[in-house]
Write a structure and sequence with these properties.
- The complex is a heterodimer.
- Chain A is an alpha/beta fold.
- Helix content of chain A is 54%, strand content 12%.
- Chain A has 2 domains: 61 residues; 199 residues, 3-Layer(aba) Sandwich (Rossmann fold).
- Chain B is mainly alpha-helical.
- Chain B contains 7 helices and no strands.
- The chains are: A alpha/beta, B mainly alpha.
- At the A-B interface, helix 2, helix 5, helix 6, helix 9 and helix 10 of A face helix 2, helix 4, helix 5, helix 6 and helix 7 of B.
Chain lengths: 276, 210
């Protein structure tokens, strides 16, 4: 009884310590908790799965570096699927933070070793400034907006870009977006009525759901859960699956502490009434 | 009329013309107007790229002044300036795909930014434990919704009992979406009104006015 009462006013330092332990242990030694795939991830997967070989995909990013942990596992899983479907991909970023992550993706997934040819199978356009205006301009005329790729090579010299001149040339938009999501939908997806699938962070997920029910977004990956779900769908055990063990354990801890705190509060109320 | 007023007037005329072109072009089908609008948007992209340079100069001025004056915590300003200058030099000299630039990005910026963001998780967890209490009816509703959302975000619980997913999805797609839609529609109307005010020169603060 006394111990439970103490838990009513638990010291934040104890919460931090417990949280650290439940996060660290599964990261060091993954548990392999089962994962149920949500309809949001399933719909995202279905869009990519339906791509024909050679389909032209526009893959863009807009999130701050701090959120890389939430986005990068999603990017890896989705790119693996796109490559397996033999899609041809044009990468671009709406935020200056993101181009190095695209380069890291190429290295981590060994694009060259897989036989993917730069300029023919994929292109990296780097950072496109101007947010909504930049997006509108890109959608209308890719070559006029972006003169050179991330490495400084003229866009006109890249064979893949001869087919990617305007938004309508792409069959699917893949976005890893938190910042500038509304602008992306407003300037590219809606005016040109293109299918859009989005990977996002936990904070932005709830705000994107109205777009899903409106049919403007065809599927959403929600933070690390989304990454883990996508890995389950493509049958790959990646970082998302490993991170989810830690995240779920932290959720269980918080739920347990909230329940214990409330039980202690109710018991204290009862004992006060009795003493009166 | 002072030179500042004249400059502001010229800026307003430019804003008005550009705003009208891009707005009208969206609703009226005209190849000529469409071509002009496309050019305007390309210019805007270039101007936006320049704004990054203006931002850097502004940072240099503000923090440089603090270092020169030896104001309180001037060494923080010095570290910021040194970091900024080093990154700019490496980026310009060796491009952003240069190994040194990549080192700065992945070994300084990325871990420090991520660490600060991660700390937020600890604060939120502690706050949730202390505040999610059944003190009132509203508090009870918040507690139940909070716990269900945590369960919904734990895919293992969906394997344990499918009902958790159904309830979590309903919470997200019905009450949550309704609230988000309301906020979105209101903010869109606000943006529209603000745009009109800027075009009609009613929003004087937009170009440095009072």
């Amino acid at each position: 009884m006394g111990a439970i009462m103490k838990l009513r006013a638990i010291d934040p330092k104890v919460v931090y310590l417990l949280l650290f332990i439940v996060l660290a242990v599964p990261l060091i030694r993954p548990i392999g908790l089962p994962i149920e795939v949500s309809m949001y991830a399933q719909r995202f997967y279905n869009q990519v799965e339906a791509l024909k070989p050679g389909a032209l995909v526009f893959y863009s990013l807009s999130f701050t570096v701090a959120k890389t942990v939430e986005f990068y596992p999603q990017m890896v899983a989705v790119t693996q699927h796109l490559v397996a479907k033999k899609a041809r991909i044009v990468y671009a970023s709406w935020l200056v933070d993101n181009p190095p992550l695209v380069e890291k993706l190429f290295t981590d997934l060994s694009f060259e070793k897989r036989g993917l040819k730069y300029g023919t199978d994929y292109v990296h356009l780097g950072f496109i400034p101007g947010v909504a205006t930049g997006m509108a301009s890109f959608a209308r005329d890719v070559h006029k907006t972006v003169g050179a790729d991330y490495g400084g090579k003229p866009v006109g010299d890249l064979p893949l870009m001869a087919e990617a001149k305007k938004a309508q040339d792409f069959v699917l938009l893949v976005g890893f977006l938190s910042i500038n999501f509304d602008q992306f939908v407003g300037q590219i997806q809606t005016p040109y009525k293109l299918p859009l699938v989005v990977g996002t962070d936990g904070v932005s997920f709830a705000g994107m759901l109205p777009y899903l029910s409106a049919g403007q977004v065809m599927g959403i990956l929600n933070s690390m859960i989304g990454a883990a779900e996508y890995e389950a769908l493509i049958r790959v055990t990646g970082k998302g699956t490993g991170y989810m063990d830690a995240q779920q354990m932290s959720h269980f801890l918080i739920i347990a502490l909230v329940i214990v705190g409330n039980v202690a509060m109710i018991m204290q109320r009862g004992s006060r009434r009795e003493s009166r | 009329m002072t030179s500042i007023d004249l400059r502001r007037d010229i800026a307003y005329v430019i804003v008005f013309i550009m705003g009208i072109i891009t707005t009208v072009e969206y609703f009226v089908v005209s190849p000529g107007l469409r071509s002009i609008s496309a050019d305007v948007q390309s210019w805007a992209t270039i101007v936006a790229a320049f704004s990054l340079g203006v931002g850097s100069i502004n940072l240099l001025r503000i923090h440089g002044r603090q270092v020169v004056k030896r104001g309180q915590g001037y060494y923080n300003n010095a570290v910021l300036l040194a970091g900024m200058c080093m990154t700019i030099v490496v980026g310009l000299w060796g491009t952003t795909s240069h190994p040194t630039y990549q080192f700065i990005f992945f070994n300084i910026l990325y871990p420090s930014d991520t660490a600060v963001w991660s700390l937020l998780g600890f604060y939120i967890a502690s706050a949730a434990v202390r505040t999610l209490r059944i003190r009132t009816k509203e508090g009870a509703v918040l507690l139940v919704a909070g716990i269900l959302t945590l369960i919904k975000n734990s895919p293992t619980m969906g394997v344990v009992w499918g009902g958790f997913s159904v309830i979590g999805d309903w919470l997200l797609s019905v009450p949550n979406s309704a609230a988000v839609r309301g906020i979105m529609i209101c903010s869109a109307i606000g943006v529209l009104a603000l745009g009109l005010r800027v075009l009609l020169r009613q929003e004087r603060t937009s170009l440095g006015g009072r």
